[in-house]
Specification:
The protein has 500 residues and is an alpha/beta fold. 34% of the residues lie in helices and 22% in strands. A hairpin with a 7-residue loop joins strand 15 and strand 16.
């Protein structure tokens, strides 16, 4: 019988549990959405306990549907939405406040003070990250400053911080009764509190943000035996892998060689390029981050370009404007017209991430005329994802000095053939989709499988990757140049929309 590996894939909008066999085939799967909470403009929250309850439910459902017992699983991996910040009571497991989601911008007003002193380079030189509301550090600080008793509990070690991976690991391994408080290097690298070289919490950063070290989890590699689950349907199963979702997709796409890159299309869009054991410092507005680390080996690093709003823009078209009934309807509507009719949609709902990093940008629709229809708007919505990816890819090739031959893609939006063809046309590169679409969960399963001895090494995993479809560029260069030029003009009109 082939070995089975479970993967918890806790994302921005839902939680899934997928069981893979050692040939990467899905044996069982279950998924549940959770509520998106918007208390004020720019504020985005999740209920951590709802996420934990959903995690329990999907694990039980998937195990039951395939009639699996805990002993059937060789290991379990966790992958998660990154930067989303939870602080909870060690004694009870109760969150002190809702999770602050990576999209949340409530701390944006704090940025100018830190930019003035100690300065942007202070943060970038240590963490590879620009100073932004995106990362966990300022979110932790907000909870400590605004939630009654939070700071006192944190200083005593009774208030624990974690991104969602840490919160789930703690509950899975016992919670208040001996739960393991740990994270991996990929998630730690997104807090703006870990030093990229030492792979440890940086004392100077903690002092600047005024965050007690006692509340922080231990930092470990991405693939090792963390501990055993106590949750009944998987009791005794070894948790052997933890990766932030985009790093997990990089591993799931078998991008283990320097210069290999993948783009994940989900709520946002995330393009990562493996730079090997060298942490390449970006000069073009990208992030330097940890790609993964196998226990006992040196870490691999990556350049990353993060786009805040891609799939979320389709949902906005569906829910806010009600132009479509289902997200999947957008492709047919967009195909009803031959082009965008001159319309461009810059979805800077909470600022622009890479390569602009402009928290004061806001969404604009440019180029409107009486000619434009809802079909043109639908097409502009899809094209916005491809244009933003183009900007990130250009910056990545500039920083790395590597020109990509092909872009590996994954995520729900890769089902949209119109978008994928336009993506290939705009970046002028072959776009390749793998046979296994669930690459984020697969990456977590791969990491856990290496820790459990199911897989030997990266070469073993690379041999298991297979292609399902590719899109080849077919657009004339003058058309591409015109579209990119007009998109760039639209982006310029979105920047600094809010006053300083």
């Amino acid at each position: 019988m082939s070995a089975l590996i479970g993967a918890i894939d806790q994302g921005t909008s839902s939680t899934r549990f997928i069981v893979f066999d050692d040939s990467s085939r899905i044996v069982a799967s279950s998924q549940m959405e959770h509520a998106q909470i918007y208390p004020r403009p720019g504020w985005v929250e999740h209920d951590p306990l709802e996420i934990w309850r959903n995690t329990e439910t999907v694990i039980a459902d998937a195990m039951r549907s395939a009639q699996l017992q805990p002993q059937d699983l060789a290991a379990l991996g966790i992958t998660n939405q990154r930067e989303t910040t939870v602080v909870w009571d060690r004694r009870s497991g109760a969150p002190l406040y809702n999770a602050l989601v990576w999209q949340d911008t409530r701390v944006a007003d704090d940025l100018p003070g830190y930019i003035e002193s100690p300065g942007v380079e202070f943060f970038r030189s240590r963490t590879g990250l620009p100073l932004s509301s995106y990362f966990s550090g300022l979110k932790i600080r907000w909870i400590l400053d605004h939630v009654p008793d939070a700071r006192r509990l944190a200083e005593r070690g009774d208030a624990l911080f974690g991104n969602i991976d840490t919160f789930l690991l703690w509950h899975l391994t016992g919670g208040p009764h001996g739960g393991l408080h740990a994270t991996d290097v990929t998630n730690a690298s997104r807090t703006q509190l870990m030093h990229l070289e030492t792979l440890d919490w940086d004392a100077d950063l903690l002092a600047v943000f005024d965050i007690p070290r006692a509340m922080l989890p231990a930092i470990r590699s991405s693939s090792e035996r963390f501990g055993a689950a106590v949750l009944e349907p998987i009791r005794g199963v070894t948790i052997g892998g933890i990766l932030g979702d985009q790093q997990a997709a990089l591993v799931g796409q078998a991008c283990f060689r320097p210069g290999e890159a993948k783009n994940t299309y989900g709520t946002g869009c995330f393009l990562l390029m493996n730079t090997g054991e060298t942490a390449v410092r970006s000069r073009s507005g990208l992030l330097t981050t940890v790609a993964y680390q196998i226990a006992g080996a040196r870490p691999h690093y990556a350049l990353e370009g993060s786009v805040a709003v891609t799939g979320a823009l389709v949902q906005w078209l569906r829910d806010n404007l009600q132009i479509i009934e289902r997200s999947a309807d957008i492709e047919a509507l967009a195909r009803s017209v031959p082009d965008n009719g001159g319309a461009y949609f810059v979805p800077a709902f909470s600022g622009l991430y890479a390569p602009h990093w402009n928290d004061r940008a806001r969404g604009v629709v440019a180029g409107l005329t009486r000619f434009v229809t809802r079909g043109h708007l639908a097409r502009a919505v899809l094209e916005a994802t491809a244009f933003q990816t183009y900007e990130v890819l250009q910056a990545m090739e500039t920083d790395s000095g590597v020109s990509l031959e092909a872009l590996r893609v994954d995520g729900g939006m890769t089902d949209n053939g119109l978008l994928m063809q336009f993506q290939a046309d705009i970046v002028d590169r072959v776009v390749v989709r793998p046979a296994v679409k669930e690459t984020t969960a697969l990456g977590a399963a791969f990491a856990a499988g290496i820790a459990a001895g199911v897989f030997r090494d990266a070469d073993d995993l690379r041999a298991r990757w297979a292609e399902s479809h590719r899109w080849t560029p077919a657009m004339a260069s003058d058309t591409r140049d015109r579209l990119v030029r007009e998109w760039t003009k639209a982006v310029q009109r979105s920047l600094d929309w809010l006053d300083a």
